Fold:
Amino acid sequence: HRPFVIVGAGLAGGRAAQTLREAGHDGPVILIGDETEPPYERPPLSKGLLLGTTAPEDVYLHQAGWYAQHDIDLRTGTRAVAIDPASHRLELGGGRHLDYDRLLLATGSRARALPVPGADLDGVLSLRNLAHSYRIGTALSEGAHLVVVGAGWIGLEVAAAARARGAAVTVVETAAAPLRHVLGDEIAAVFTDLHRDHGVRFRFGAQVRRMMGTGRVSAVELADDSVLTADAVIVGIGAQPNTEIAAEAGLAVDNGVLVDDGLCTADPAIWAAGDIANAYHPLLGTRVRVEHWAHALHSGPAAARAMLGQTVSYDRLPYFYTDQYDLGMEYTGHAPPGSYDRVVVRGDIGKREFIAFWTAGRRVLAGMNVNVWDVNEPIEQLIRDGVPVDLAELADPDVALDDVTR
Ligand code: FAD
Structure:
């Protein structure tokens, strides 16, 4: 019996292995991961682990013994280096190989590197894995000077944790606002104000020229010649999907591994899930690739079911969340720049208690609830309905979301 092999022991891969067993598959399952850790969840790495509110043992998908108990051959510290689709063979580091029956690629992303002089100095850190989070945690002491490069979700979450731990934080961002391309100017300002209210300094429209220091970073020099003192620098300028082995194997790769709505590549024995999957979305009618926890959580199992021959059409709406200080937010839907013509706000932006809707031709494309809870289902329904709605009612907190005229 050739095994079902999963490459990437992250959330999507771990959940896929679990689903294979839950669905009754009793053939061999091998889960390969190049980290030394069994699968774990990454959201706490920039939140609870840094704040000390999440215990290290709580980040794991399962306890280490769970895999053997479920007859899943978890091989940590093992890297897949090449795929030969013709012979169903996977090459591993160290010259070993594995023959597979069916293969799931769930290799996730890596942090984008900042190509400036000094980026290799000690104390210049990115955040993708547990070890990174622990290292950053030790840098967040009272009075330390932290420079965060990139005002994306991870950069802002680290900034929030650092402020909570008493560090002085400056965030350097090339754009004129944080998260501008995701949220647009009006909603992006909510996050600027939130962080300023908590003592974060921003340098917008700023470029890092180089990191300064001997051995260890001591400052960051910007393109306008200004110099920021830094005991540590967190680089949070986005992630890059790990698609190299797929591309080298001749699979179609274009902003991720191209898969159909059943998460299958053009090779009927190879699937992709999680951050690397650029999947056709049957509801949105377009390809979508997202780097979201919920997508890894659900697309891994969907791919596993498809590997077992079940008919799968993965049509979950993109969903992500963040927690920063006392602000909690959830975002549902898909509204890339240029896709919407209005942002409709229900509630009080100033109080940071509202729902924002991105709409096009009065249809709701996405909704973001900030410190407003239990509204996912109606928001999702508004998007799924896909019909024009009454925008005045959408903005009116006295009209229940379910009752908005459509
Ligand atoms: P990963 O979790 O990246 O796992 C892939 C695994 O495959 C890794 O262990 C990798 O080392 C391994 N691998 C790669 N190549 C190979 C190879 N060739 N051979 C063997 N193993 C390989 N999302 C949200 O929605 N909300 C949040 O608040 C949020 N916070 C986050 C905070 C941080 C700090 C980070 C880094 C991410 C956060 N995310 C969040 C995103 C979310 O964690 C990811 O979308 C999710 O982890 C993707 O899961 P994955 O299984 O596809 O990939």
User: Anything to note?
Assistant: Residues 326-403 form a domain with the Enolase-like; domain 1 fold (CATH 3.30.390.30). Residues 7-13, 32-35, 42-43, 45-46, 79-80, 106-109, 127-128, 154, 242, 245, 274-275, 291-294, 296, 320-322 surround flavin-adenine dinucleotide (CB under 6 Å). The mean pLDDT is 97. Residues 41 and 237 are 20 Å apart (CA to CA).
